Amino acid sequence: MHDRSPSATHLTDTERLDRLRLIRSDNVGPRTFRSLVSHFGDPRTALAHLPDLVRRGGAAGGRICTVEEAGAELAACKKLGVSLLAPGEAQYPPRLATLDDAPPVLAVRGACEALTRPMIAIVGSRNASGAGLKFAGALARDLGDAGFVVISGLARGIDQAAHRATVESGTVAVLAGGHDKIYPPEHEDLLATLLGQGAAISEMPLGHAPRARDFPRRNRLISGASLGVVIVEAAHRSGSLITARMAAEQGREVFAVPGSPLDPRAAGTNDLIKQGATLVTEAGDVINAVQPIMERPIASDVREGDDEPFDFDIDPSEHTRIVALLGPTPISVDDLVRMSGLSPTIVRSVLLELELAGRLERHGGGMVSMI
Amino acid sequence: MHDRSPSATHLTDTERLDRLRLIRSDNVGPRTFRSLVSHFGDPRTALAHLPDLVRRGGAAGGRICTVEEAGAELAACKKLGVSLLAPGEAQYPPRLATLDDAPPVLAVRGACEALTRPMIAIVGSRNASGAGLKFAGALARDLGDAGFVVISGLARGIDQAAHRATVESGTVAVLAGGHDKIYPPEHEDLLATLLGQGAAISEMPLGHAPRARDFPRRNRLISGASLGVVIVEAAHRSGSLITARMAAEQGREVFAVPGSPLDPRAAGTNDLIKQGATLVTEAGDVINAVQPIMERPIASDVREGDDEPFDFDIDPSEHTRIVALLGPTPISVDDLVRMSGLSPTIVRSVLLELELAGRLERHGGGMVSMI
Q1: A262: contact with B, CB 8 A cutoff
Q2: B261 to A270: CB separation less than 8 angstroms, yes or no
Q3: DSSP 3-state assignment of A360?
Q4: Residue from B139, B274, B278, B281 whose CB has the most chain A CBs within 10 Å, to mutate
Q5: What are phi and psi of B178, to 5 degrees?
Q6: Is A281 touching B (CB cutoff 8 A)?
Q7: Strand ranges inside A18-170, DSSP E
Q8: pLDDT per position as a tens digit, B161-187
Q9: Which of A33, B65, B68, B315 could covalently link to B21 via disulfide, CB atoms 3.0 to 4.6 Å apart?
Q10: What angle, 0 to 180 degrees and rounded to 10, lies between the N-to-C axes of helices B43-56 and B30-40?
Q11: Number of other CB atoms surrounding residue B303 within 10 Å
């Protein structure tokens, strides 16, 4: 069972190095990467213009990843059996590639064939009940037997139970840090075992130890790579509910396992069902819901050249006008356009320069603020 | 909080006696009662024609309730504090009155004001878990505090917990037997207590000990009198699921309390949610769903004179033709019309005669068979 036919894209060593340099440079995230490549045509040209953009954004620092640094990462990855893939390459998870903020470089390790099979995410409480762990394991096993790859976050509790039950059928662990910084450390053995039929993926460089804010960011990869996400146990305001919200925003199916109203670990999942998530008591509930999605071709949004345009021929007075309107309180880009009287293209371009200079923070819903 | 304004209908003693005689006669159920009154105009005229219809249906017996028998029931009811009400009378539960098969005579006892307040049914396993009992009690209490009357079946388990929690706020017990044949007998004390602020109702005559088949029949009154039914715990193929199905057929809301997929007592309720029942974890879930229904006037279908017509001027050869087509295997009335070449009115009339004679059994979906 494959989630789509293998892609034709293949990068040269130089292309891969350029790509890695651009995404590893300061203040360049997946969306900025995409904007730059969209404007300049390819990573190499974007890198050539980057120092100028950073300077005009008003930065003191803003380090650009050197050829040597990127080369060293590639060599270290090779030593650890880690490949660095671009969206559209053969083993890049095809659904993950469709995200607006798909990792421009994904570090993958293990039996990478697993990454192109249809995936179902199973996540839930770290502090799960015995019944929750048992159910997660049984559900994962049944989904694995039905040909799905189970993807999760290698955390304690539900994640662990889901991975462990699918070591033989294939499971994917999404890491919040680099491939050499496994969290929690006691799951290194589980990870080593699951790499036999499955894989581990990360968008972070080697040596990156995961911080608290890296986990929600990582969760978007769990939901994004999958057809749908099953939340097994989740209290009110728990991390798994963030994954559920991301899944919904990404257009993925959201599944939730019900529980007694008297069980606080079921409060989050019962709420999800009230809000429209599909109730799951057995693997068939998941399979029936994703079957029609698997039959449709994956909406490919991989091209990095069709974004809104930029214009970096900016008058210093325009730059000043926009900076004057910005402060620590988030404001919408639409308001900035209206208040500045400048074109959306100019506003967007100034904001990108400020972002690359490390002076702009982007919030949800098109809101921005100065740092 | 009242479920509607008091009705204007009031029966004379003679009308009440005639009504009681007709429904207590052999082979006259709520639907037959309705058909006869619809055709003959009132119960007294129907009673006058009944012996002739029974004879033509080919019965050996087919007892008609006498004036003395009905008078004796009325007197015994009075002694026990039981009133006999017709649909449309002031304290007849207004939503119950809208059913096609509403009891033509309802025996009520207790604080009958409770019967015109908005009701929510709470039902579930007799063999409930501690958590199920606790939740049923808490939900019932909260609904009672919000002004609703909780209606249930006085059974062990969930029913008992729901009644007990609403003794003060008002609760209604629907009996499967007569008011003097309480089942289970150990709930006689609970019943006596709940009559203070609540009521008990039954469509059965005094002295009728409930048989197994009376319970599903009774369940239609629980759902029919309510705005909606909450199923708290129910295994696969349990009696509570029959109540849920009846509620749906009657156009009532169906609510279900979720539970772990590993808990067999939640299998039925989880299935109901999959099929579209509203998931309930707190009273607010029920109240929000029934609020808009309470704001609409109750669709009154009480009139007993607008049914499809009969024609008892039947040729013996027509009678014979229909009887010849009938056997122990159920057949649809539509098929009988087509195969006999007779008019629907004639077929319907012959079937009513056979029914009154105790020779016809009606099944669901317009199917009939000979006994």
Answers
A1: yes
A2: no
A3: strand
A4: B281
A5: -70, 165
A6: yes
A7: 82-85, 106-110, 119-123, 149-152
A8: 999 999 999 999 999 999 999 999 999
A9: B65
A10: 110
A11: 12
Cross-chain CB nearest to A270 (options B135, B258, B261) = B258
Contacts of B281 in chain A (CB under 8 A): 261, 267, 270-271, 274
Contact residues, chain B, for A262 at CB < 8 Å? 131, 134-135
- Residues comprising chain A, all counted: 371
Q: What are phi and psi of B132, to 5 degrees?
A: -65, -45
| φ, ψ at B370 (rounded to 5°) | -85, 145
Residue A34 tokens, joined: 């995409």
Whether residue B258 and residue A273 make contact (CB cut-off 8 A), yes or no, is yes
Which residue in this structure is represented by tokens 């499809």? Answer: B308
Report the C-alpha gap between B110 and A130 in whole angstroms.
48
Residue A41 C-alpha from the chain's centroid: 23
